[in-house]
UniProtKB/TrEMBL annotation:
Keywords tagged on the record: Hydrolase
Organism whose genome encodes this protein: Granulicella rosea
Catalytic activity annotation: GDP-alpha-D-mannose + H2O = alpha-D-mannose 1-phosphate + GMP + 2 H(+)
GO function term, MF aspect, one: hydrolase activity
Top-rank lineage group of the source organism: Bacteria
Nudix hydrolase domain: residues covered: 41-174
This protein's name: GDP-mannose pyrophosphatase
Any Pfam family hit: NUDIX
GO biological process: nucleoside phosphate metabolic process; ribose phosphate metabolic process
Any one Gene Ontology cellular component term annotated for this protein: cytosol
Family under the similarity heading: Belongs to the Nudix hydrolase family. NudK subfamily.
PROSITE patterns: NUDIX (PS51462)
Cofactor annotation: Mg(2+)
Length: 186
């Protein structure tokens, strides 16, 4: 890590709800110029790649849900957080997977950790591969009442990434991380 080139002069919280807080920082850049920086703070989250290998091929499970900020329904890997800073990443991933999809996994591999939109947001995203999937009942949060689960062949999923039917950058980044990890597994 390098020495910070921006120093925080002061900070104040301007908004808070159970999922998010927003703060406004007065900053000073290394050239002495002051400015304002807005930061969204969120607790850690996870994203899960539910991968199923069958004699017919490989499939991923995607969640379709309405995303209010962009006013549309979109497909993405299951993901989310528990609105607490102290989490065990694998427990969170297993919980989110079961909650949103009803799936449980025999194996969970943590592929890495990313920052989400770190130009404006302070939130870590733990990336997991889930395999050996078993089906069960979902238990969605109240705001997730309209989730739809899709089982998609990997080739079709990758086509959806390439033609922008999958627009969630976290889903695309997780898949890219998985592809590099898998390639190096030999």
């Amino acid at each position: 890590m390098s020495v910070p080139s921006i120093k925080t002069i002061s900070t104040r919280e301007v908004y808070r709800n159970p999922w998010t807080s927003v703060r406004e920082d007065v900053i000073e850049r290394s050239n002495g110029k002051r400015g304002i920086y807005g930061v969204i703070d969120k607790d850690p989250a996870c994203i899960i790649i539910p991968l199923e290998t069958t004699p017919e091929g490989e499939f991923v499970y995607l969640i379709e849900q309405y995303r209010y900020t962009v006013q549309g329904r979109y497909l993405e890997f299951p993901q989310g957080g528990w609105e607490t800073a102290e989490i065990v990443p694998e427990e969170l991933a297993r919980g989110e997977l079961a909650e949103e999809t009803g799936l449980t996994a025999e194996t969970m591999v943590q592929l890495g950790t990313h920052w989400i939109a770190y130009g404006v947001m302070h939130q870590k995203h733990h990336v997991f591969l889930a395999e050996g999937l078993r089906h069960g009942e979902t238990d969605p949060d109240p705001e997730e009442h309209d989730l739809v689960l899709h089982r998609v062949p990997v080739r079709e999923f990758e086509d959806m990434v390439l033609d922008s039917r999958i627009m969630d950058n976290c889903t695309v980044a997780a898949w890219g991380l998985y592809k590099v990890w898998r390639e190096r597994q030999g």
